[in-house]
Amino acid sequence: MENLEGKRIALLLSGGVDSAVAVYKLVSQGLQPDCFYIKIGPEEEEEWNCTSEEDVEMATAIAERYGLSFDIVDCHHEYWDKVSRYTIEKVRSGFTPNPDVMCNRIIKFGAFDEKCGYNYDFIATGHYADSEFDSQGRKWLCTTPDPVKDQTDFLAQLYDWQLRKALFPIGKMNKEEVRLVAEREHLVNAHRKDSQGICFLGKIDYNEYIRRFLGEQRGDVIDLNSGRKIGEHRGHWFHTIGQRKGLGFSGGPWFVIRKDINRNVLYVSNGYDPKDAYKSVFYVTDMHLLTPGSVLPDQVSFKIRHTPDFYFARLTRMDDSVNGMTVWKVESSTPIHGVAPGQFCVIYDTSHHRCFGSAEITFY
């Protein structure tokens, strides 16, 4: 546990109940964090910019409630230049990116630090994540008691210096406890619903956002088993491996199994639970470790999407490389549905307590 006495703390308020209770937790320890709201959004100012007046009003009210300073930090252009561009380029290349993962590394603990976070010893957030130190004084990212809300997978691409500065005041709480504290303290956003989807899109459909930048490009949809063309799609970037909903073909259900990017072809499989939709073995590259000096064990647990479920696997470092990056083989003890290139495979110890880091699933 960090010694916070006399330390300067910047707390990122989102307008939601989690970061509001994070304020309460710090103030109840006699601390006086400075509060900030990060403004982000797409390239142009439009009616679907995510900067919500209600978010700012809620954040302002929480800061005022505890007599704390409050400021808005504009990371609008940094978000477009780095996170949004990353998302579009990955989708264009046939991958399934996770912009929220990159937002934490590039914006919340990155651009914000460059603008004003460097003045602080810690950057606190309302993430459901925890941390601990080992006997060597190394800091580890750890899971929380709430497996449904745990957000360590969204933080698994942080740099080690960012993790050292990160502070998670609600890390030992579950969502129910957070709500109860907010109600007891009569916080203005105690009953506010959790945000959903990619943060800057607001009410705009994700496919509409992709269409805005990549347009449409019709291609064939092929039944993987029969080789028969069953229809057309409007662009492979509107679909992801494992997808079932939104295909619109008769005789279903149909699942997207793989893509041929060069030929702009989608391959699908029919059935309610087709074997083609599962993988027990896949490969990852660009292994990113959160804690310097940590060594990956052979046996690990992992997840490839934001769910409460962990899987067990054998992890093997290969002799091959892709684009100069070492390849790792993941042999899952359970077949996994919808393994898609571009997703992050987040690696934990076998008790899924400590998070080692993450790597990107590859076409390899």
Give a short summary of the structure.
With 364 residues, this protein is an alpha/beta fold.
What does this structure look like?
The chain is an alpha/beta fold. The protein folds into three domains: 151 residues, HUPs (Rossmann fold); 58 residues, SH3 type barrels; 84 residues, Elongation Factor Tu (Ef-tu), domain 3, CATH 2.40.30. The protein has seven helices and 17 strands. The strands form three sheets. It has a six-stranded antiparallel barrel. Helix 1 crosses helix 6 and helix 3 runs antiparallel to helix 4. It is globular, with a radius of gyration of 22 Å. The mean pLDDT is 91.
Number of domains: 3
CATH architecture of the largest domain: 3-Layer(aba) Sandwich
Helix percentage range: 10-25%
How many extended strands?
Answer: 17
Instruction: Provide the low-confidence segments as ranges.
Output: none
